[in-house]
């Protein structure tokens, strides 16, 4: 039992003694044979053959024992089971490197003889580099003898016969399939001819039916055009009336806004003048406030000085009152002393005789006492006058102080009222400024609305002009189509046949096709209309719903491109 592991053409470099090297392609076969007689073992069979030379045959049978000696001799690192795959990898690398000018791996067959005859040869796998050539593997192959060559040729002949038999069977199968296919092809050709005839008849019927339908559709389109034209005239009148009313309303609104703007401007000027007056008043009031504050400060300082002076006067008055009380007490004491003296004098008078010796002394003492009493009475009178004068000055100062306090309180009240009034005027000034700014913003918004309304009015006028151009173009096309229909009725052979692909009805009136988007451009209205179908004429009329949806003004690019999208419905 054998298992083929590898069988391919491999480039081989043949070297013989005293001969030039040559390169050939040989078939390398690697088989793994299982032998069970007398013991179970596996042998690796390597065979070299040449497809162009049937007598070229080299064999090598490697058993496990032979591989061990080979492994020892050449220093191999793989075992017997992995050796076939490694050898196959080396052969594949030789095959891959054959296209290069200097291949890295070479498969060499070296023979010591002058020619490849019955002498053994060495099969070497060599790796080349600029330094040296390394021989990875060297196997000694034996040439096949006559028996082996005959056996090999018999096997090749057997394989060729088997291949010929399979190819003959394949040829018979392909021949049967070809006959069946030709028969089927003839049947399909007959069916195709039949279908072509049916299709031609069907196409002729459809063409006649299409012509009738086209005639009826043209009549319907003519009626629809008249109806649409009437509706468009009515809508045009309604739109003009609507625009006229809108213009009148906008003009009235504009006059109202101008009047309001003028009123607001006058109010603004008045407000500015009032603001200037209030600012002038405010500056005057602030100056008066500063003067009043300075006066209050000076009055407060003067009041403080008067309070100190009054306090000193009160202290002096208290001192004088104390002194007066002391003098009054002394006067009382002197009066008592006088009484006692009078009593003593009476006693002395009664005892005059007894006291004659002391009489002179008593007279002198009495004179002194009387002088003292007189001086004390004068001083007491002076003190009373001074006290009265001081009390009058004190009353005067107290009156002045009360008057100054009253004036200060009144000035403070007046100052508070002026500050409150100033705050109210400032708040009113701010309110007037805010109201003025609001009015200015409102005027700006109204001006923007007016500009937008004027722009919409201009766009509506442009839309009306486009509608008039479209009506003119439709009338022109209607007239041309009526002429075409009359010519069709008078002489069908006078006009070219209508093409199903939507070609021109008349060569003199054909619109210019646009190859970019397949639409037909009419310079009269500047609008592209679809022209890829024979029924395109029916769809070129304006639908009422589209007209109704397009009377409203639009902004931006929608105003310049008229809303004809409803034509495609």
UniProtKB/TrEMBL annotation:
Major subcellular location class: cytoplasm
CDD domains: HD_SAS6_N
Residues in coiled coil: 171-198, 247-337, 366-470
Gene Ontology cellular-component annotations: centriole; centrosome
Keyword Cell cycle: yes
Region (Disordered): 491-514
Protein name: Spindle assembly abnormal protein 6 homolog
Organism: Phyllostomus discolor
